[in-house]
Inverse folding.
């Protein structure tokens, strides 16, 4: 019996390899199709953005970026992200904690609500705020009497961005928190840690990579959002244009170098996001593997014992 | 821990940089305009700021917002704080006045020439050599001719385009409304993309290379010629067109609240001065002042045109009939689908 096992393993291994060798054509066809698709629909456009931006030389590129209205759009985009990301971190952590660690009525409803921005078109998200804060809307006249501008100003842009970036952090954290369970927290509690200590020393470290992942995605979306922001921005040049809106405006003003220069910044952001995301995934995987390794080595010890 | 701290510091720095530079100190005006006036007001704003500074010593910064005319009017109604509106047609400013009471109903009588300091006509832009031999409106309904024009529901220029086609059909088909409707319906069946604004349509035609002919503002067509060269496009002046009068107005409630009434009025009056008219002419808008118009005579050929008041009984009548909910354009679109 003991001598049989390795041979059988080897045979099945060989068989599975032969299975893969039998259809190299199909394999290459699939890989080729996927590769071609990525090349044509993702890589070429991305390269084209940089080619167009740098088409008239580095000087023209930086000159386009130094335009005061472009700088103001970059500033507004950063400001929006600087407001939205922390707020979403706070909300995301609270929501994920509530969903993962506690049982309460309306939990399913809360999860559905968190997902709502994913399923609603961004344009609708923008229009919702126009209906609420517009002069023809519910709160508009009251705000106008007090000289408060919400839509067609920075607060409206922040609100619309908050709406569309709402789910990112919570969605990343919920599965991670559910997976870690409540054992560690309970242990900490029984050892006399306060609620805050437990959260800060036990819960947060266990989900930090997931949190960072959510923050990166949230940030990318906050900076890149077009539809919702377009509806509430009012398109005042140099005041309420974010980077994506600025790209459109420059393109439509027959300034393609400028448009693609700003677009290249957004593309760079996407690349940085991608690299950070890959790094985080690799990091998480390594941690996971390390944990697995400890487990399997202990289980192997147990397994070899009887033989 | 240091990593969290440094992240927080970075965040705080971004905050300080961005928050510190949002506010300015000089007088600010917001000019909410339509699509085709970007370049015009870029130039007007610089000239007026200089003029105002010489007159009063104050610095004035004029901010611009552009888009389809109806869309822009809608934004002003919803609270976009426009000190002045400079839209594509009177009806859009009427709508602002009627729905939101931001300015009085007689706004068009407050400035000379129907409150339109410059005019334009509707022309065709075709590709070099005019490969589809497009010379008149009747050529646009031929099968196989792709026509680019924006959506009349959102764009002011598009409504002028539509009405010009209608006026032509009415004249050539013996004043028969049913035949005119059929003609315009055939024209819109030849339209592959309806952009939301005139500039979007121009971009579609010029930069994305879609379509055989662009129906456009004269100024928009000439601008495209200047930006992209006469070696790629040609302007075709149809034998009959419509006179478009893009009006301007200050928005009373906004300027009173912001204390910018005087400068807003001066800004609009500046458009009627020889200097303002000169800038309009340079940006391919037809100046109202005869002596300025004379200097641009070779740029603006004499054409035969109809007016909105003459053929359609004014915007108050044309708008609901043609572009209102369930109006002629909606009927045409419904049949087209």
């Amino acid at each position: 019996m003991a001598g049989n096992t390795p041979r059988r393993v080897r045979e099945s291994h060989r068989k599975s390899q032969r299975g893969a060798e039998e259809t190299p054509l199909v394999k290459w066809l699939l890989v080729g199709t996927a590769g071609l698709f990525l090349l044509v629909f993702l890589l070429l456009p991305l390269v084209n953005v940089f080619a167009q931006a740098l088409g008239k030389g580095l000087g023209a590129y930086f000159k386009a970026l130094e335009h005061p209205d472009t700088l103001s759009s970059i500033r507004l985009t950063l400001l929006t992200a600087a407001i939205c990301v922390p707020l979403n971190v706070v909300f995301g952590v609270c929501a994920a904690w509530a969903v993962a660690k506690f049982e309460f009525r309306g939990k399913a409803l809360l999860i559905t609500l968190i997902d709502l921005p994913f399923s609603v078109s961004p344009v609708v998200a923008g229009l919702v705020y126009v209906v609420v804060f517009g002069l023809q809307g519910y709160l508009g006249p009251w705000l106008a009497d007090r000289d408060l501008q919400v839509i067609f100003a920075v607060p409206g842009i922040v609100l619309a961005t908050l709406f569309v970036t709402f789910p990112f952090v919570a969605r990343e954290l919920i599965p991670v928190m559910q997976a870690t369970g409540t054992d560690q927290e309970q242990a900490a509690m029984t050892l006399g840690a306060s609620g805050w200590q437990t959260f800060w020393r036990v819960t947060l470290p266990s989900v930090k990579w997931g949190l960072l992942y959510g923050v990166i995605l949230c940030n990318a979306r906050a900076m890149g959002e077009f539809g919702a922001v377009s509806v509430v921005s009012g398109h005042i040049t140099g005041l309420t244009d974010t980077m994506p809106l600025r790209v459109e405006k420059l393109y439509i003003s027959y300034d393609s170098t400028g448009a693609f220069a700003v677009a290249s910044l957004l593309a760079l952001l996407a690349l940085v996001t991608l690299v950070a995301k890959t790094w985080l995934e690799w990091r998480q995987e390594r941690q996971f593997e390390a944990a697995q390794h400890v487990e399997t080595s202990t289980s192997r010890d147990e397994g070899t014992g009887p033989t | 821990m240091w990593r969290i701290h440094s992240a927080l510091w970075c965040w705080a720095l971004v905050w300080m940089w961005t928050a510190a530079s949002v506010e300015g100190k000089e007088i600010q005006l917001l000019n909410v305009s339509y699509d085709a006036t970007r370049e015009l007001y870029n130039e007007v704003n610089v000239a007026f700021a200089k003029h105002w500074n010489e007159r009063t010593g104050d610095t004035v910064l004029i901010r611009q917002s552009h888009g389809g005319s109806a869309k822009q009017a809608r934004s002003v109604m919803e609270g976009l704080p426009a000190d002045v509106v400079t839209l594509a047609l009177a009806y859009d400013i009427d709508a602002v006045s009627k729905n939101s009471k931001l300015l009085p109903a007689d706004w068009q009588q407050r400035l000379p020439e129907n409150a339109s300091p410059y005019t334009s006509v509707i022309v065709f832009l075709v590709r070099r050599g005019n490969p589809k031999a497009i010379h008149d409106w009747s050529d646009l309904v031929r099968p196989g001719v792709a026509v680019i024009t924006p959506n009349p529901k959102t764009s002011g220029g598009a409504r002028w385009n539509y009405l010009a086609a209608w006026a032509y059909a009415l004249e050539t088909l013996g004043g028969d409304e049913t035949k005119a409707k059929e003609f315009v319906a055939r024209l819109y069946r030849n339209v592959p993309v309806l952009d939301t604004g005139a500039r979007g349509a121009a971009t579609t035609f010029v930069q994305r290379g879609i379509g055989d002919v662009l129906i456009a503002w004269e100024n928009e067509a000439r601008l495209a010629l200047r930006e992209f060269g006469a070696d790629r496009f040609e302007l075709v002046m149809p034998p009959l067109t419509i006179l478009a009068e893009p009006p301007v107005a200050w928005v009373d409630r906004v300027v009173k609240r912001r204390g910018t009434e005087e400068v807003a009025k001066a800004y609009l009056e500046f458009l009627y001065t020889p200097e303002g008219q000169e800038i309009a002419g340079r940006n391919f808008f037809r100046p109202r002042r005869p002596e300025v118009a004379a200097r641009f005579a070779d740029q603006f050929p004499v054409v035969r045109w109809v007016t909105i008041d003459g053929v359609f009984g004014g915007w108050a009548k044309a708008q609901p009939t043609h572009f209102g909910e369930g109006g002629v354009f909606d009927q045409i679109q419904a049949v087209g689908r």
About this structure: Chain A touches chain B through 33 residues (CB under 8 Å). The longest helix of chain A spans residues 256-304. The radius of gyration of chain A is 26 Å.
